[in-house]
């Protein structure tokens, strides 16, 4: 299976809007409609991507650069409920980290993300990719970071 990231565009944003999470996961990740609204607001410092398996959109993720810190952040990563458990999340995360290594918005070696503390599957994925808990948290979210 060929996994790739494609920038969200006029041609594919509806496919991303149609991604679904299980009811249990809806508390963990914002819907792509909300995320793409944020991408529009932060358009000079972020890139939203559709996650594709061959030619089918199976997920969504966004990289954003925080000029104030500076660091790269990963926002709203999700895999459609019908496509989970196939390794797409891990493959997409590797591709996104490769994208960030090129420093498309600014210089930083730090990549951070937040994850609901009860989302054990996502936490294990991030830890398996080298992310470590930073000790920072906000409500039900914990922060993890990785240095490239």
Outline the structure in words:
This protein is an alpha+beta fold. The chain has a single domain, classed as Aminopeptidase. The chain is built from four helices and seven strands; from the N terminus they run βααβββαβαββ. The chain has helices at 13-17, 32-41, 88-101, 120-128; strands at residues 3-7, 46-53, 56-66, 71-79, 110-116, 132-138, 141-147. It has a seven-stranded mixed beta sheet with strand order 1-2-3-4-5-7-6. Strand 3 (56-66) and strand 4 form a beta hairpin. The longest helix has 14 residues, at 88-101. It is globular. The two termini are 27 Å apart.
Describe the protein's topology.
Blueprint: E1 3-7, H1 13-17, H2 32-41, E2 46-53, E3 56-66, E4 71-79, H3 88-101, E5 110-116, H4 120-128, E6 132-138, E7 141-147
Parallel strand pairs: 4-5
Antiparallel strand pairs: 1-2, 2-3, 3-4, 5-7, 6-7
Task: Give a quick rundown of the structure.
This protein has 148 residues and is an alpha+beta fold. The chain is built from four helices and seven strands, in the order βααβββαβαββ.
């Amino acid at each position: 299976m060929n996994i790739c990231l494609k920038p969200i565009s006029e041609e594919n944003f509806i496919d991303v809007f149609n991604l679904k999470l299980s009811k249990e996961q809806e508390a963990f990740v914002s819907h792509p409609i909300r995320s793409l609204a944020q991408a529009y607001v932060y358009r000079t410092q972020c890139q939203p991507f559709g996650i594709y398996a061959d030619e089918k959109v199976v997920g969504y993720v966004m990289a954003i650069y925080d000029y104030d810190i500076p660091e790269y952040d990963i926002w709203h990563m999700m895999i459609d409920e019908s496509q989970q458990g196939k390794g797409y999340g891990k493959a997409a995360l590797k591709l996104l980290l490769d994208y960030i290594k090129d420093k498309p918005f600014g210089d930083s070696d730090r990549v951070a993300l937040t994850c609901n503390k009860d989302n054990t599957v996502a936490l294990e994925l991030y830890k398996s990719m080298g992310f470590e808990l930073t000790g920072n948290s906000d409500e039900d979210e914990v922060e993890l970071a990785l240095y490239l």
